[in-house]
Amino acid sequence: MSVQDKARRIIWIRRTVQTLVLALFVLLLFANRPADGVAPTAPVTTFFDLDPLVMVTTWLSSRSLEGISLLGLATLGVTLVLGRVFCGWFCPFGTLHNAVGSLRRQFSKVRPRTSGCSRWQRAKYYVLAALLVMALFGVQWTGVLDPFSLLYRSLSLTVVPALDVGMSTVANTVYLGDPHLGSLHLRDATEPVYRWWQEHVTATEMRLFTGTDVVFLVFMAALILNLVRNRFWCRYLCPLGGLLGAVAPRPLLRLVSDPDACNGCQKCTMACPAAAQPEKPGEWLGTECFGCWNCVASCNNSGLDFQWVPPVKRTSTGSVDVGKRRTMASLAAGVGGVAMASVTPARHGTTYEPSLIRPPGSRAETEFLARCVRCGLCMQTCPSGGLQPTWSEAGLEGLWSPMLVPAIGWCEFECHACGQVCPTQAIEPLPLEEKKKIKIGLAVIDTTRCLPYAYGRECIVCEEHCPVPDKAITFVMEEAVQRDGSVRLLKHPRVDPDRCTGCGICETKCPFQDRAAIRVTSAGETRHPDNQPMLGASSSGYGTSESNPYGY
Amino acid sequence: MPRITRRDFLRTSALIGGGLILSDSLQLTNPVLASDGLPQMAIARWDEAALAKADLTATATRLTEAAMEMLGGMNRWVSDGDTVWIKPNIGWNRRPELAANTNPDVVGTLVRLCKAAGAKNVKVGDHPCHPARQCYRNSGIAKAVDAAGGKMVYLDKKRFTDMEIGGQHLKSWPLYAEVVEADLVINVPVAKHHGLTACSMAMKNYMGVIGGNRGSWHQNMEACLPDITAFMQPRLTVVDAVRVLTDHGPQGGDPNDVELRGIVAAGTDIVALDAFGATILGHEPRNISTIKAAEDRGLGTTDYASLRPVERVLS
Fold first, then answer.
1. Are B282 and B168 found together in one domain?
2. What is the reported pTM?
3. What SS3 state is found at A33?
4. Does one domain contain both B58 and B96?
5. Which of A190, A205, A488 is the best substitution to test chain B (most B C-beta atoms within 10 A)?
6. SS3 for A260-315, per residue?
7. Domain range for residue A10?
8. Quick check: B195 and A203 CB within 8 A?
9. Could you report the predicted ipTM of this complex, rounded to two decimals?
10. Which chain B residue is nearest to residue A462, measuring alpha carbons?
11. How many domains does chain A have?
12. What is the extent of the structural domain holding B25?
């Protein structure tokens, strides 16, 4: 069997693996849905557990290994042996890029320019350096650019909801309009499909997310850039690709070329998605190569092959010269990023954003942001759909981290799923009974809107929905003078701050649907001992005691 | 062995026979019949002494069967090929023991009886306050309904359509067409406390077939509940009082607020059943504003005893 045939066979194996991994990614994405208020049973964090960039930066920024998966080490180990096969064979985002690139080749008449190695490929190492420096100073921005976070967030917050809206719109239009020919009803065809979709695919009520336009634009931009250069994202920007490239300039399996067989036809250059210089014998770039075998298959003279080489031996003089000055500049940029992000009143506990209601079990803000990788798992699993990505509430540092927006949905009393699916334990995996004791905020009644207070009308909706068994909302009987002078006895709701957990269902369900007459603010949240307006019921100061482990 | 004298025998026989003739002539025990010649209301009770040790699944099942049997069986309402919508209260993500939702075995038994009576489709669904999937599962109702051959339906928020209610307060309101279009809607509430109306029963249970801003109804429950009840034209109501929630309703959550009562009542007069439920919770029905309003509207009687319900005690 010729080298070319072997390569072609390996490429088919690679494509199969890529498809299967992408399918697994999507399957796990759909598996991450609200069960009976407990965590999904499928291993939904698998991809993040395998991500060495998440592992390293979370470890640096949180200065702890608690709750951090060490499977990323396995990925690094594989990379030391086989090079960046993670990018070429495994990464589902990479596979999507491949798919877009192959679409371009199928449909575009324009021959792509030869895309040899470019200086710009250094960019990803600068991105990586900046992220590492930021992490070292406690600012974790990895999630914004990590490929798994980016892909997961984009799919779960924008693509899946868009599909759901599409399915629902078509099915409901057909159902309500009921177009039919005699006894042939179109809805008989659409209903089973819609039912299947709802019961087996989404398995939740429709959930939509705010501010996802930008998430989607970033995702689309990353995909469309494949039209400029094959796997643009992976070549130039991906910090995880940068990390893997950095650890494997000389893997054990390397591309070896026979200079005598090369006729300079550049077919391998055209075939190479990574611009790893297969066309220059002796200058192959181990840091860039995805190990995809395209070049080997493209060479009609059998001049290229992957071979095992002892680890220390230097077989290539090629390198992506990142340059000391530029590296220093990117490190400085990272420090700049830190300065930008961390010199704010909120970051230093001087102010607290009232709308920044974090999921139950979230660590104190600094520690939370040091861990959160903006993957979107918690938002996707939230049964009420109340967990939403932040935009400005947590500053640029906290971009796309989760917060509860009670106008959209509440924190379900009998649920602790978000903490169970968080891959980095930014939200701690509390047992359900512990979670029920956590305060994520406090309900505040707006007496200028509340119906009994402001309008002298009966309403008990907030009390009715308050899930605390002995009710955090109680009534005080008050006389309300009516327009005709008569007096009516009304139930005025009042919040008991010792019992209120800030779950927000009162705000979601308030008859005022634009701005509720009872709203949750972050005050009183368990995780911040300084954000406490109330003297606690146990009056032992804040902090913890045996009887009152959460400090209220 | 004690001897029975002839005199004892005659005296006892005379007493029993006389008693039977007397009670029959006074019609103390005979139910007031509906136009189809069958009783309007039935109450099945579990023997109080045996209740604490009873297996509640069997209890709820047999009570429901007994109540329906006393009313003449499910065939009174269900014909071959019918579509039935059973409307339990599944409003809250709570376990069955907390009595915030209808007992799953009561619901399951009704599904089974409907299927046995020839119903083609038995759909069960509610418009819950908590996420529907969690409610359906954690209430135990989904499991019971699946086992009995019924189908749980998740209401689609886009499928509420405006309907002419023509009520005193509600002129039109979005309702779930699939419910309204069913051949029969069985209203199966759990008897429980409610913060506004003092108790929540069958009429309140209709809030699970409506869409729109449901919270706004609380400003005028006395008008809205009779309006929706009149529109829904109730034919069969089954009140689950196997467990009742006595405080912190309608969702409860504290096992101490739950009382074991072992009662299932069923009948054709929704107001009478609401009144009966209110009595179980210790209220005078006429003091409950919504129930009183419904009676004043002519939707039924709060004096459920006047229907002379058929009663049976099981153990």
1. yes
2. 0.90
3. coil
4. yes
5. A205
6. CCCCCCCHHHHHCCCCCCCCCCCCCCCCCCCCCCHHHHHCCCCCEEEEECCCCCCC
7. 3-151+217-308
8. no
9. 0.86
10. B215
11. 2
12. 1-30
